[in-house]
Inverse folding.
């Protein structure tokens, strides 16, 4: 699933491709993808003649800011946007946006897990799915060491589960949680409430640094992720633990281990990361 850095990269690419365009027609090939309104025909009609003023992001969700509405799009596992190249759409193209300048944006999704919600402008932050999201992990004014201390202090869950909880922190996923915990020297299965103030402050800083670095590198192309121009991210070239089971740790030389934490495949160095 694309995480915050990948979605942010898609946002920036889409902004350069479709900002200022006016939607002339929308074709929905897979109505189950449209979650609000509950009628995909209403969805299509409401988008007619709407101009795209900006593309935003909240956690892992893209936000198309239109004249009267905000379209909230979740890519889930395999979703991606791309401009039409003149060829006929393939079987994985499920939503097509035709613009008044005769260009076309396509939403493709192999697994059909992606979702779209269309809100009247101003309502998007007060309803699901956005209203349940925690602060952004690189919003230094909100996501602070003190905030993370409060979140960890009131739970007996392991720290990885806490960090993956979108209600606590918006946008983190398996890749960047593993990487941030490695950078902070904390085992993923450590009970969050047992962490000292000092270690939590270090973790908060490493989360922020990891996310910012990944955004600068365009995210991680570890599966099928590419941005709106079909380009791969490059952060995967500097992953320390994720996807490196059996390889030597770049710091201590010990073997990177893989286990399951929070129901997710989890990578860590048993020497560099301690409870």
């Amino acid at each position: 699933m694309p995480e915050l850095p990948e979605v942010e990269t898609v946002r920036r690419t889409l902004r350069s491709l479709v900002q200022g365009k006016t939607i002339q027609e929308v074709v929905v090939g897979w109505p189950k993808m449209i979650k609000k309104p509950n009628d995909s025909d209403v969805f299509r009609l409401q988008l007619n003649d709407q101009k795209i003023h900006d593309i935003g992001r909240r956690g892992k969700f893209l936000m198309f800011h239109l004249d009267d509405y905000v379209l909230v799009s979740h890519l889930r596992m395999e979703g991606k946007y791309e401009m039409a190249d003149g060829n006929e759409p393939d079987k994985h193209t499920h939503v097509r946006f035709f613009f008044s300048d005769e260009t076309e944006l396509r939403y493709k999704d192999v697994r059909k897990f992606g979702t779209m919600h269309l809100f009247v402008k101003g309502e998007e932050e007060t309803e699901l799915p956005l209203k349940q999201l925690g602060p952004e992990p690189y919003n230094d004014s909100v996501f602070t060491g003190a905030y993370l201390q409060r979140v960890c202090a009131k739970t007996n869950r392991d720290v990885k589960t806490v960090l993956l909880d979108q209600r606590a922190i918006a946008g983190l996923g398996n890749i960047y949680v593993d990487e941030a915990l490695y950078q902070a020297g904390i085992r993923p299965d450590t009970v969050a409430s047992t962490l000292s103030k000092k270690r939590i402050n270090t973790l908060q800083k490493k989360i922020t640094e990891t996310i910012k670095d990944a955004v600068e590198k365009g995210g991680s192309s570890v599966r099928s992720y590419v941005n709106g121009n079909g380009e791969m991210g490059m952060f995967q070239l500097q992953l320390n633990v994720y996807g490196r089971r059996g390889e030597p740790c770049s710091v201590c030389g010990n073997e990177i281990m893989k286990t399951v934490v929070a129901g997710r495949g989890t990578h860590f160095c048993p020497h560099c990361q301690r409870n």
